[in-house]
Amino acid sequence: MTYQPQADFGTPASRADETVTLTIDGRAVTVPAGSSVMRAAAEQGTAIPKLCATDMLESFGSCRLCLVEIEGRKGTPASCTTPVEPGMVVHTQTPRLQQLRKGVMELYISDHPLDCLTCAANGDCELQDQAGAVGLREVRYPAGDNHLGQCKDISNPYFDFDPSKCITCSRCVRACDEVQGTLALTVQGRGFGSKISAGLASDDFLGSECVSCGACVQACPTATLVEKKVVEIGTPERAVVTTCAYCGVGCTFRAEMRGEQLVRMVPWKEGKANRGHSCVKGRFAWGYAQHQDRILKPMIRASIDQPWREVEWDEAMAYAASELKRISATYGKHALGGITSSRCTNEETFLVQKLVRAGFGNNNVDTCARVCHSPTGYGLKTTFGTSAGTQDFDSVEDSDVILVIGANPTDAHPVFGSRMKQRLRQGARLIVIDPRRTDMVRSPHIAADYHLPVRPGTNVAILTALAHVIVTEGLADDEFIRERCDEDEYRHWADFVALDRNSPETLEPVTGVAADLVRGAARLYATGGNGAIYYGLGVTEHSQGSSTVMAIANLAMATGNIGRRGVGVNPLRGQNNVQGACDMGSFPHELSGYRHISDKAVRDLFERDWGVSLDPEPGLRIPNMLDAATDGVFKAIYIQGEDILQSDPNTAHVAAGLAAMECVIVHDLFLNETANYAHIFLPGSTFLEKDGTFTNAERRIQLVRKVMSPLNGHEDWQVTQMLARALGLDWAYTHPSEIMDEIARLTPSFKGVSHQRLDAEASLQWPVDDKHPDGSPIMHVDGFVRGKGKFVVTDYVPTDEKTGPRFPLLLTTGRILSQYNVGAQTRRTANEVWHDEDVLEIHPVDAEDRGVRTGNWVKLASRAGATTLRALVTDRVAPGVVYTTFHHPETQANVVTTDYSDWATNCPEYKVTAVQVAPSNGPSDWQQDYQAQSTRSRRIVQRDAAE
Amino acid sequence: MNSLDTLIRMANQIATNLAHEPDPAAATAEHIHLFWDPRMKQMIRAHDGTGLCPVAQAAIARLAMAA
Ligand code: SF4
Ligand code: SF4
Ligand code: SF4
Ligand code: FES
Known about the structure:
Shape of chain B: globular
Strand content of chain B: under 5%
Number of helices of chain B: 4
Helix content of chain B: over 70%
Helix content of chain A: 25-40%
Structural class of chain A: alpha/beta
Largest sheet of chain B: none
Number of helices of chain A: 30
Structural class of chain B: mainly alpha
Order of helices and strands of chain B: HHHH
Largest interface: A-B, 32 and 20 residues
CATH class of the largest domain in chain A: Alpha Beta
Number of strands of chain A: 37
Radius of gyration of chain A: 29 Å
Oligomer: heterodimer
Bound molecules: iron/sulfur cluster, FE2/S2 (inorganic) cluster
Distance between the termini of chain B: 27 Å
CATH topology of the largest domain in chain A: Rossmann fold
Strand content of chain A: 15-25%
């Protein structure tokens, strides 16, 4: 499409069902009641001049440009703040209005530099447009001195603030307040001389509370707040809608382009996951796509102590195929396996698992979801019958009580975090269960009603204590349970949770949470109206991760909080396509749509379609693959878009497993840490360079569209196809849409999905089948997918990872807003200014005991290993608990984490490691050895040099 | 820790967490049947039972019978 900014209706859409008919400029228009006159006019195609209004924000009525005349009313009301009424007759263009508007414009322009020709926003400036629209031809006032001549603030790495261009419309301030909820901006002073400031007048953007979401930049009608890329490149000339490749919120964007150059990402207002908002990562942190570290040519080497040798694709594929065949012939076909990635598209993931099952001839395929949300799959499938969250994001608008457990939405799922905060500011109540005092617990205008600072590793105990209160105080929803759940199982469960040993009082010494807090939170959740539970990796990454998910499901069923808007059980997914990767059959025991590999009817379906026979036995999970490798029986692996060496627990064990393999194929953008142990490197493409789909945490399938040619020459699905063909498979896909057709053909919940439909309808939420032809925003509406909801007794079992004299503290890990996962992408962007190293948060009491101060180097040691990093002394963490992130390879937090894991899924227990912290003056032995090995392993002999 | 120790730990963990099922040994056996790869099952079946809790032992015995 040629470039058009997104339509702006001036004020938000009204959600009322009743309609109102009025006449605007002689034409009748019917709109929902509660719409503004401005919105009604815009829907009819009449653009009333405006400056302070935009449809992302509530109307404000400050600029007085949008005046209209209404028959029978005195004066000239502002159309943005005047609601429509039946029979109203409105005139938007009269000589009187024209005169008034010109006068208003003249004042604005007198205090605005007239450097339009050289301004970054030239051609994309609302002030310029409106000056034209009102017919301004002269400015009679002397140049104002309120804003002209002020200095620029260029401190933010992604956008500039040039106050000399500001018209004080306060759209930025309101965007930061209403859309983002950070309230970083203020208006200083009054009237025409008022000025916008990030925090105190002395602060700059970088030093302020600003989280760089860019909502203010998008809202600004002038070039006052403008993307640095627009200044550098110029305004865009076309736009392509695509989906963010970072987190599981799945924000959609308009990639605004000049030729093949990306100018900016602008959140798409029609996007149902993000409704026009974004965070710093999706909007700004895409510079990695062009980073010099990207590897663009395939490389091979016979052993990992050799330097890499660049080769052509044919040679790389021939070598890979010959190695895989040799290993299969020598050690048997079970010596091979593959790992799919939650960062890749559904189509790419589907192909990798197909390659393993149909090409390698076994089921040794797993996904990085193993290490994050595999317990969600197990827990929700067992209790409800589907491995997915129950709601869409919009549902939160109807929640009365929000329970957040083990999730940090403002950092890890920022756009949904902002939505949640909007709802809380409207009056919804909040319960946070988290060892740390996250920003949800207290931030501007938000305060949790209950914060239960649970001791890491005791989630099941605290959830059982909540259930105890609900059952013993008669707060359960008996009617819901009778109608919707298996009653015998409920009774068995209720008897169990009602035992004295499960009371908040008895469990207080275990969880560390005061019993009265637990009782208060349970009563609020059970009786406060629509109760919705949101959870993250703080739930799943435990030895009882699956039990915790089931305990959450039990709570929701016991209180009848399932099957309608405003309630539900909602896993917040880490990476962009965690849901999709799981749906696509990436787990070793199941085919797409969560159907067990031992099911003959399902296998038959795939066997007929693929023309191969499938192994009926489950394959190896990632940790089992590594164990099998150290046992000498697992020898070759194809890893697409994953960095298991940095992201998986117990780094030393992962390294030993990889080192024991004879053929490690890494398919990625960069030489990641895993590639230090690889023999074949296949360059990958970024989300900007390929077509496909991602599925977000709401089960929403959305298109990823190619906006530029892949720098490495091939989209990732093509690379997998080349490998399959080199192995003798007859794949001949010409476009990812054909892969989706195959997925739809073989997967009942995707039956109605196609790229064509997604193109027309923007998104679909699975299941999309005969019963739900338009998809399913909310699940289990008329009954659970499995029939009756299943209550499962979840008894608290303490983890084997115990503190003691040698390791007296508990380490828990997490992530922060500006970095993403192992940081491979975000570390290669300007986001480094916010977080350039992982630090260890430690409570003042524990720090004092050890003589540690903020900024000191400390050694963090566990039974698995040791690393060093800098300390941050803070009471955000409780005494006895320390916390760090895992974004930087130099820190390697996973050197310390152990290989303890969830009982049902082997999801690693990242959130609980017994550690000791001591002052240190340098890197650990592991860090030094690893650094040397890593440098050695990354040597490349370029093709030209080799010839 | 070698692979067999890991499998013993896993089997015990499964048995402990399924202790409230109507037939814990059957549930444990079923879980292992559904989620472990053939070599892992074979290793635990071949093991003499040392280190396994009683429920896990009973489960492995069932697996061995079914094999
Ligand atoms: S970028 Fe976002 S957080 Fe920062 S000032 Fe603008 S709206 Fe507020
Ligand atoms: S910075 Fe932009 S949005 Fe903010 S008040 Fe000035 S002109 Fe309006
Ligand atoms: S919230 Fe998630 S999906 Fe949205 S822009 Fe940020 S990283 Fe991307
Ligand atoms: S747009 Fe209505 S008063 Fe500014």
